[in-house]
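Here's what a typical entry looks like (Phage tail assembly protein):
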Amino acid sequence: MFQTEFEFTLPCGYLDEDGTLHRDGVMRRATAADEILPLKDPRVQRNEAYLIVILLSRVVTRLGGVAAINPKVIEGLFATDLAYLQNLYNRINRLDEPADADELAPGAGAARPGEFSATPSIN
């Protein structure tokens, strides 16, 4: 069966303004619109590195008890968690070999040295 959503657990977690730590979440596969529309965003046009923030805010559908995932939430992630989610995004959406639930079990999306880049790979 074709899987469109993948659960994850952040290495550090998102610390909200009330001091609550949110680690468990869900990311869905990206659509063409998820990758195309952010390119029109002025923040991305000024700074290409911001593309991953917009992309992740579109495809992360749940993060603990956070009411709405938006760019501000993604901006508030620790760098370790941003790298983790970027790696997970790349693995879920790669063309050569589709991801499956076993491969992307919690902890499987950890970034490895040399794999982090400012923008997602769209292979």
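The two ends are 23 Å apart (CA to CA).

More examples are in the samples folder.
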